[in-house]
Amino acid sequence: MIIISIAYCMFGVIFVTGQNACSGGIAINSERDASRISGCQRYSGDVTVSQVNVEKLDFGDLYEIYGNFIVSNNFNLKSVLLNGLTKVSGSMILKNNTQLIGIAIPKLTSVTKLSVTNNPNLNYLNADSITSADIVEISQTSIQELRSLMFKKCKSLEISGNMNLKSIELFNLVEASQYLSIMDNNRQSKLSLPVLVTINGKMTFKNLASISAPSLQKVVESMNLIENTAQEIEFPVLQNTRNNIFIISNKNLESIKFTKLRDIGSGLIIQNNPKLTTIAKDSFPELQSIGDKILAVGAFNSVEFPKLKNVDKAITFQSSGKLDCSELRTQFEFMDDNRWICGINSTKDIVGNNNNDSEKTNSTKVINNANSKTQDFIDLYYKNLSRKPQNVLKQYADDARISWNGNGMQKTNLETQILSKLGGIRFEVMSHDCHAINLHDISNGMVVVVNGYLHSGNLSKQPFSQVLILVNNPSKKNEFYIQDDCFRYV
């Protein structure tokens, strides 16, 4: 571990600061420029620090900034001291400072936006007094722990790409009114949100070793639980979410518990969690209604939803375990047959204990055939999305069930709501996986999972995940179209 100590010296300095020196906006190019405003009780205007050649800037007793404070693109600057600063009415942005190792804002209580991004050597952030912040972004630093953020409410909070960050504890946070995203930090990172009650937007927890949110009651948009290494995910008092719950690619996950969850506004997607073999009675003991679909793909041996009485659109279970589809069907008698899919991707489960070579050979052929058909389909699909989005309509069934980033729609609405807005966007597929719903025959359909990136001009790439259920086109042999489409940003 690298420990950096920044010593602070207090000097008795008296500044005689004229009114003009404390307003109008200033570009800081030297220590002398910083000293010019260091005695201001209130500075009105933006303060910018860019491409300076000094290693340290001390803003002394500067008390309030009515404007923005921006430190960006400095390649020699190592520390910024704002020991007297209590308020920034606009944004405090620290970005692209390659040598910056320390920031001291110990008295800052209020800032509209705090953005600390792409400061790769930064491992000291003293911001213990911030009690009011609308937007907070901390990404691509060397910070090892975050325990000093004291605000109770924010609009949005993003902590991402901090590869040394192992501990995130937000002791006071009660509400995020837009979104909360904690993702892609150190793989041993532990998250604690002891008093968080409400997220009025999207929640994304990714690459976390443990997650603790014992007071969380409400998530308005999607809950994304992706690629975590935690063995257990539990939300003991969560009552409802108006959108999707995604539980995807959590390699060590063995248990999920949503003890008081009653309603899911859209879909429940549980996929590619290799150690999650059971959805137990205590996983969703109070769940009664799902507004869209269940899509569960994994090594399931048993599944139970003891109180579930309504799923509006479709249920799909795809298991490589010992799941008994006939027995499972009795739990969902309220579903029509045309909205129910259950398939087993296991030779043993489909053909009993018969392990003869012909059965294995047939299974291998089906798997290879599924991979080939899927590759052809997604090549055409994403080529169309990138070049001629309207052409993908031909690849959808007329009654397809479609959800893009939490917005449910019919095929007739897909063009106006989504496709017409994709001009200039390129889709890059990084990986895909497919499972035949019936191991003996791909004609019963396939479940396809695609992960990749969207590219748009000079903007940073946006990761996405898409789950497609392909069904056979009865009018054209060996041709498939999309029956279900669930697309989301990650």
Automatic annotation (TrEMBL):
Q: Which UniProt keywords apply?
A: Cell wall, Glycoprotein, Secreted, Signal
Which InterPro entries does the annotation name?
CWI-Assembly_Regulator, NTF2-like_dom_sf, NTF2_dom, Nuclear_transport_factor_2_euk, Rcpt_L-dom_sf
Q: Name one GO biological process term.
A: fungal-type cell wall organization
List the Pfam families hit by this protein, alphabetically: NTF2
Report the SUPFAM superfamilies cross-referenced here.
L domain-like, NTF2-like
According to its UniProt record, where is this protein mainly located? secreted
Cellular component terms (Gene Ontology): cell surface; fungal-type cell wall; plasma membrane
The source's superkingdom equals: Eukaryota
Q: Which residues form the NTF2 domain?
A: 373-489
Matches recorded under PROSITE patterns: NTF2_DOMAIN
The residues the entry assigns to the signal sequence are: 1-18
Could you tell me which Gene3D superfamilies the record lists for this protein? 3.10.450.50, Receptor L-domain
Q: Where in the cell is it found?
A: Secreted, Cell wall
Give the protein's recorded name: NTF2 domain-containing protein
Which lineage? Eukaryota, Fungi, Fungi incertae sedis, Zoopagomycota, Kickxellomycotina
